[in-house]
Target: Solute carrier family 15 member 1
Amino acid sequence: MRYPPTLLIIATKKLTAECCGYPISIFFIVVNEFCERFSYYGMRAVLVLYFRYFLLWDDDLATSIYHAFVALCYLTPILGAIIADSWLGKFKTIIYLSIVYAIGQVTMAISTIHDITDANRDGTPDNFTFHIALSMLGLILIALGTGGIKPCVAAFGGDQFQEHQSRQLNTFFSVFYLCINAGSLLSTLITPVLRVVFIAGSGMYVKTDPEGNIMWSVCKCIGFAIKNRFRHRSSSYPKREHWMDWANEKYDKLLIAQIKMVLKVLFLYIPLPMFWTLFDQKGSRWTLQATTMSGDFGAFILQPDQMQTVNPILILTLVPIMDRLIFPLIQKCGLNFSPLKRMTVGMLFAAMAFVSAALVQIEIDKTLPNFPSSSESQLKVVNTYSTTLNVTISPNEHLLIESFGVQLHTSKHTYSTISYVKSKPREGKNAIRRDFVLRHGEQWCEFSRKFGFGASYTFLIPSTVFSDDCESITEVEDMKPNSVHMALQIPQYFLITTGEVMFSVTGLQFSYSQAPKNMKSVLQAGWLCTNAVGNIIVLIVAELGKLPKQWAEYLLFASLLVAVSIIFSIMAYFYTYIDPAEIEAQVRKEQGLEPEEMEKETLEMEEKDEDQKNEQGVKQTKI
Ligand SMILES: CC(C)C[C@H](NC(=O)[C@@H](N)Cc1ccccc1)C(=O)O
Model:
């Protein structure tokens, strides 16, 4: 049989060992993902605290750099996808970038050792520039590692499945997502595990070779189509069905068909960053909201940042429920709950989560103290004298100061204050958290009291304090404890996580199923980029400032997402689901090329020989 003098790509999948209908190699991939997310989320969880308390950055800078880092982690997938699909292949890309990742984690760890520059041993680094530079280098390497391997791992997992395993392929993405969340959840509890599991499965993987510099060919082909279209802009030239068809003169029909498939999906992704903009505020705005709430659950006390673990916990329960119960039930009711419909509903759930956050915020606002505005000032005077005193604070204003103090707000005056609290204590902590012991030389006494969350107190300590065993200490409550319970945030976490399962797990599967074979990682990278853009939007919003009322900002975000989901549902309505393999076969047929399956059969004999000689390669390229 003669083959046209065109580049023929012949894919032959290796017979893989199976367990319950799944390729065994999948086990190594999901365990690898678990460990990777474990390491990533473990580091991310303490990153803001590192910026804040080690590098001594202020809140705004720490938050901005944090979101910039997260955005970078979801931008680098493009680089990983290019390396994998054009050069090294997914397997090698994962291995090499994991090494970069590990170097990044080590660099980051070294940057936290203050002894390196603490020559005078006072517990503070002497050279902050060194620590900042080292940690930034570490973070860039980590972003390169984690982001670079991310589109490859999901696509590599998908590659392990044969055609008859399409049901298992869908379940794989759910299990993959479960592992992400199990890893992120456990990372807060246990120290990172070495990522050697992935290499252990090496012999079992279906490893597809990269097919030349595919990204470069794609860019050149798109560039040519645009140029050619522009050259033929006069109406005398007949119109073509698709603007990419203007590349027909120079480029292979198959490549053009593949680019059309990818562009169609990428176009659909345009509104998606809005979902992530809301989703990623869990880590910032919602955690700040939790700082003004009470985390006293009786048996244990929950810190505001720990509230975020509700998300992975819910994922672990919701993914199986959705997969095994809700989606099959919807299907049984005869409803067509297609992937894009699921994603739209997911967005609506996220919008509802923000409505719920707004309602909680309204409740919290009712309990917050009134702080002076920019045109006011706050004066606090504590009267330790035994009787009421009359204090004149301006020619026309008199104040009666009760014994042990009073707090007041006045307009347009600045007074010197004894104690001045201008915001709720940070992270829901009290100014003083536990019982305290007073010491003076040999004398001491212990003061015991239950302090409320987010409360602030002033203690008046007379000189007689040691003789009466702290009895004479008088307490003034500057700020009432937080009274709205953190459990009220659970509905918003439930709604956003339900939205995430519908949106994110489906998006992952959709990106794999709609991508041509040689661009699976590229489309995974495109999907992850929607997250990066979402984080950049959070950054911009944080910098531009907020609405005066936090609940109004939550409602604004919810309305924006509803508007975006309407746009997305219209776009989705016009999207036709494709089977990339079928389209590719069709184009091949039109070009007079052999369909892949036939090629496979014809060449099976030839390959048997070669297979034995070659190391356990999977895909061969023949010219
Ligand atoms: C963009 C990715 C698909 C995000 C994915 N994230 C999750 O699955 C989160 N539910 C994990 C999480 C855990 C703890 C706190 C917040 C988020 C991923 O990491 O791949």
Q: What stands out?
A: The longest helix spans residues 128-159. The chain is about 55% helix and 10% strand. Residues 37, 41, 180-181, 184, 308, 311-312, 315, 500, 504, 528, 531 surround LET2WEIY (CB under 6 Å).
